[in-house]
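Q: Here's a chain of 535 amino acids. Please give me its 3D structure as tokens.
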Amino acid sequence: MKITLFLLVAAMFGGRLRAADDITWLVQYDGKSLPGPPWVTVGKASAKVEPEGLRLTDDGRDFGHFRASWKASPGDEIIVEATLKTGAITGSQSKKSATSLWPWRDGAPVMVQVSDGRHQEGLVLFPAQAASFTDRFIPMDTANRFHTYRLVIHGTDMSMWVDGVQKVTGQNAFWKPADSPEPFIQFGSSAKAATGEAVWSSVKLGLRKAAAPLSPDPVTLTISEPWQIPREDVRQTRPYLYDMGKGLLLTSVAQGPDAFYEPYGLLKSTDAGKTWAPIPGLDKIDTTPLPCLRRPDGSILGISRWTRTQPDGRVTGKTVKLNEDATSFTMTDNEIILPKQYANESKNDQTICERHIWNDDDGGITMVVWTRKGVKLADGRSNTERSSHLMRSTDEGKTWNYFATVGAGGEPAVVRLSASEQTAVIRGGRNSLMTQTFSHDAGKTWTKPVALEVGKVLPDLVLMSNGVLACSYGRPASCLMFSLDGGKTWPSHHVISDKVGFNYTSIREISPGRLLYMHDAPKMSAFYIDVKLSR
């Protein structure tokens, strides 16, 4: 009878669940009454028992959650399961979406958090998204009905399931050092400013024997102590790194309030990124070059991030030509020519030059850009469409002609894997997930994008000399992931820093196997990260 029942359950879920009776449940709550021992109340929980379960409301005046301790068993898998339906949820800042949270800093109005005494992580729910506290995201409607969410924790891995279907692999997702050695589980609200509510039908935690040993991380990292990159006269955020060779590094950094036409500064380093100095004339202006490239003749070419739409409809920017050691420069106008469907037509449309740029075999140059264009939807509403493109120049950056569209979305990172193979990772949109696409014909055409399980902002890509493809990305932490097969899979994930800022990141390989990693949380800082294959 038990075998028949298990086969029936497995068939219902496509064979995706292991037998339910191999879990020993240690802590359970059934939603039929207020939580009692071993649960204790932390803060003030506005709780009401309803026919469907326990309604927990955080209205901004009081917030609280229920917490229970448990006894960890090293080597076993930890299973956390919660069945609930969310209600209205706000963000941590006024006029911001509900997903504008850094959960480790801000808390969250609807969350489940678990610790095994060594590490801690959990589940945060928004109306249109289920997420970990850090960088894994599941786009879904969490408010339409009750859903059952499951976290399966094995070592530092944490897979995420919804209604019996695995949505997130979660390699190294259970990463954060525990606040205390006491294992716990808690559910409800930990939000400092955001508000929200949910009806909880059940919450439980159990253990089971692991079906297989934990897969080893294929990449081993050695991370240096961080150092700050100070600036007394201006706040520096959102770094973009470039290795010019010959011992010269450049970085373009934002110096404004995260607005169009904010000023940038171009800084240079000759000591492997330890210290930086602004280049006179290319600091605190909105025509500072962002993508920078060493040309075959030894000169350095840079293109301004910002472009402007002229009265005659042309889109123009600035091309900067620096000498070999970036001590002098000239600046001239350029023109960026896009098809009408992407070209600027209103004052709010934008064409933005991104960080990746390279020399072509024919002497030309390819640059990555992205566009923001207002469009009318079929129902009459206005929308902004973001698209990423490749542009080519054959006249030293005076004119840039459209070459291809990489995919939907902005803040793209593009890397060449070979003469014909390229891959791109594009910033996450409203659902937070970054997307990835491939080209097999040197960038002329691109595959249909696939959603990654991670997000959110400003990915950067570097193909290292050891064949490892590295991708940095940020928000709500500063992260790094690696691929050993040209981006087809990403089996190695690491949180480099959980400190909070813009959490924009940039990487460059400055010597074989060594990455320079820059991020801006909370101030501009850098690390050396030595990357070795584990096998």
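Q: Can you summarize the key feature?
A: The CA atoms of residues 287 and 375 lie 27 Å apart.
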